[in-house]
């Protein structure tokens, strides 16, 4: 990452913090039905994704953000997977995002990532874990 890219990310994070302090909604949608977390995940902005998750305040609000879909039926995890943003994918999974949710075209987040990549491997492992008998038994 260049110094300019780093500076831009720091400024963007500060801007998000200021907007949230002034009461900006985590639920505002853009023209494609995406929440701010969708856009942050698509860009791979892990600091902003973490800030948005932290700003949700309750587990129910976090869950709602992670499960909300845009106009193509895609969750924030779909956006992070398509962009091959491994750290963001890991953060979303650790926060409770479902690797099994399909978009309007029947694609899981893993299917939107490139074959043979770390992102694909992490998502496929998470899918397998989510469908294992132990996962459904609550173990």
Strand tally is 0
State the separation between the terminal residues, measured CA to CA: 41 Å
Overall shape: it is globular
In CATH terms, the superfamily is Ankyrin repeat-containing domain
Q: How many domains make up the coordinates? A: 1
Radius of gyration: 15 Å
How confident is the prediction overall: mean pLDDT?
86
Q: CATH topology, anyone? A: Serine Threonine Protein Phosphatase 5, Tetratricopeptide repeat
Q: What is the succession of H and E elements?
A: HHHHHHHHH
Fraction in beta strands: under 5%
| CATH architectural category | Alpha Horseshoe
Helix content, binned percent: 55-70%
- Helix/strand class: mainly alpha
Largest sheet: none
Features:
mainly alpha; Ankyrin_rpt-contain_sf; globular; ANK repeat; 139 residues; Ankyrin-SOCS_box_domain; Serine Threonine Protein Phosphatase 5, Tetratricopeptide repeat; 9 helices; Ankyrin_rpt
Question: Secondary structure elements and their pairing?
Answer:
Layout: H1 3-21, H2 36-43, H3 46-55, H4 59-67, H5 76-82, H6 86-95, H7 109-112, H8 118-131, H9 133-136
Helix pairs in contact: 1-3, 2-3, 2-5, 3-6, 5-6, 6-8
């Amino acid at each position: 990452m260049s110094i300019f890219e780093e500076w831009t990310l720091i400024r963007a994070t500060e801007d998000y913090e200021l907007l949230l302090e002034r009461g900006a909604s985590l639920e505002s949608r853009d023209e494609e039905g995406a929440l701010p977390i969708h856009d942050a995940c698509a860009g791979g902005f892990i600091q902003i994704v973490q800030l948005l998750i932290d700003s949700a305040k309750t587990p129910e609000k976090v869950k709602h953000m992670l499960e909300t879909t845009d106009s193509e039926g895609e969750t924030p995890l779909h956006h992070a997977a398509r962009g091959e943003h491994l750290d963001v994918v890991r953060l979303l999974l650790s926060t409770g995002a479902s690797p099994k949710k399909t978009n309007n075209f029947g694609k899981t987040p893993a299917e939107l990532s490139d074959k043979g990549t770390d992102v694909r491997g992490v998502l496929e492992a998470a899918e397998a874990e989510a469908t294992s008998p132990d996962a459904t038994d609550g173990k």
